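Sequence only, no structure available. Ideas?
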Amino acid sequence: MDLQGYFNRIGFTGPYNKLDLDTLRTIHKLHVMTIPFENLSIHCGEKNTMDLNIIYDKLVKSNRGGWCCENNLLFSWVLKEMGYKYTTLGSRVFNKFQNDFYHVDSHLINMVEIDGKPYITDVSYGVSCQLWYPLEMISGKDQPQPPGVFRLLNNGKTWVLEKTSRKQVVKDKAYASLIDKCLTNIMYDFPLTPRDKEHFVETLDCLQTSPDSKFVLKSICSLQMPNGFRALIGWTYSEITYKPEEDSDMVDMKEIPDCEIEAVLKEKFNVVLVNKFTPKNNKANY
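Reply:
I predicted one. Tokens follow.
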């Protein structure tokens, strides 16, 4: 594992001898713009792992993406190698259909301290709720970023992250039913209890094998772009263009036939799969 190899992968060319917020913001943004959030391994007959060497080979050497336990675990290694003071945390993702948080930690994030101030980094939530930059841990403060306004809330025991989006305008009205009409959504909650990677192993196994897991029900690949993001969920390809000056986002969606899936992954996400990929999308759980 080589830090320069990671920097080459994300296109970072600046100095990193200063462990400041500007450098952290830069590598955070470059990561989400270069390494996709995706769970395609599950739908290729492969198994995701918490082995950092395997994750490095997959995300850095093989130009793949990964889900949170891969992207954010790799990012924690980057933080360590660079010399940042950080703590790995576990969070519970909010399920709006059940109106409750997942019963155990299923999402790995990192807290970084710079000049005595703590920040949350998360390079692997994906799609419309992906952070581009670290969030300062100040309760109730609106922190605008290109995807929308993020907000951390502290109830005394745990922190809660929520996001307020802009109105989404769908080009093809046939897809309007897939759009979330609620503009403010809870993302996850977390205490400040330090966690190691072993804390996530059992849940990780469940999320890639349980028939009720959204990662089993859907194949997902998303990547942030300078003016929005793109995603392939099952056979549905989306390009979302942020238009903050109009307080809206433009959503362009279309179906991709099986014969074009591999080409779309290569052209739009720079992802080439080795094993046979079977797209999946249970739209009842969109």
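The mean pLDDT is 96.
Hope that gets you unstuck.
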